[in-house]
Amino acid sequence: MKTIYVETYGCALNRADTYVMMTLLKSEGYNFVENPENADIIILNTCAVRLETEERMKQRIKELNTLSKKLVVAGCMSSAEPATVLSIAPNASLIGPQSVERIIDVIKSEERKIVLEGDRALITPRTFDGKIAIIPVADGCAGNCSFCITKLARRKLRSYPLREIVNAVRDAVQAGAKEIELTGQDTAAYGLDLGGSISLVDVVNKVTEIDGDFMIRIGMMTPEQAMRIIDNLIEIMRNPKVYKFIHLPVQSGDDRVLKLMNRKYTIDEYKELVSEIRSKIPFVNITTDIIIGHPGEDEDAFNNTLLLMKELRFERIHLAMYSIRPNTRSASMPQVPDSVKKKRIQIANKLYEDIALSIHLEYVGSTSRVITTELGRKGSVVGRLVNYIPVVIRSENVELGKWYNVKITEASFYDLRGVFA
């Protein structure tokens, strides 16, 4: 039986796609190796969300193509920019992120095969690494943001069947998973393509009913879709099996820029949403994404973003400097000079780090329950508070997947550090 090497880049949804492909390939008896040179077939699951990521993907495609193996390029770059991929590796097969269910056809084909369009999302993964299982609930989204190349790769919203999601989680928990990451481009959009008779809340409700000691992390959602289900979402987040964590990308603190981005909410609406969540869920961790230097961002708009950061005091912000993505509307707009973007991202990063550190310092001296989920560096173990803030524990007696009482002794802007209480 032929051997396969898989290399994955990008978001949790990309990793979930990899696990779907691996599940199907394992069912056909394929074996996996850790080195591309030892493989008969190479699968590269790509990301194209930013320019520097795309350049890295181009380089990696070129490197893997020189090995003269059967090369399959998957992920967002294969679907959004197939001509670019084929210009680097003309003989590579391509499989889009919404057609990963057809990986067996692509692998078995003697000729180059290009499969970029998908049907319904029906197959959930039955494999995971460590103690964290990533289970997709949906891919694609209901929006059409001006800056987003992912929309060109995942063109339609596809919600996975509820039964498939529940069965995947049950199997993962029985196999030892302690953290279930329910992922999607916009998890709150779940069910819109199914007539709206079922929602993300129904999914989480069913998953919480599964026996076992595990925690559920609800993945990223757009503010406008979160608003649609907010009352029920808050109620389900009170469940002890659900992390008090919500990822709500705001992208800009300026209404005019949000309109240029084609985002479907105002800053006041976003603030109201955050205020409602925080007032009803103690210790909730609201994480956000912000793009610095999007077309139309003048000094006033940038300052409005800084003001929003100061006012809402996010524990975690994924800050990104805007980069042109081909075939998007933002690419055709007048651009902010690179020198200005670089200066602004430095200012925003410094502010974010100051805010995050001040939040984390409030935990120093306290004792909290922590569930250990990952191996860290230099023999450490990484755990999570109930609001998903990471805690690094240095001890030889820490087991993964266990709850510990930990005294927080140190803090950085990125994480907490602690010892057994």
Largest β sheet strand count, sense and barrel closure: 6 strands, parallel
The shape is: globular
Determine the structural class based on helices, strands and strand pairing: alpha/beta
Output mean pLDDT: 97
Helix count from the secondary structure assignment: 14
Distance between the termini: 51 Å
Instruction: Summarize the amount of helix as a percent range.
Output: 25-40%
Low-pLDDT stretches: none
The share of residues in extended strands comes to: 15-25%
Q: Would you count the extended β strands for me?
A: 19
If you compute it from the alpha carbons, what radius of gyration comes out, rounded to the nearest whole angstrom? 22 Å
Order of adjacent strands in the largest pleated sheet: 2-1-3-4-5-6
Would you mind describing this structure in some detail?
- Its cofactor is [4Fe-4S] cluster.
- It comes from Saccharolobus shibatae.
- This is tRNA-t(6)A37 methylthiotransferase.
- This protein has 14 helices and 19 strands.
- It is of the alpha/beta class and about 425 residues long.
- The longest helix has 24 residues, at about 340-360.
- The radius of gyration is 22 Å and the shape is globular.
- The model has no long low-confidence stretch (mean pLDDT about 95).
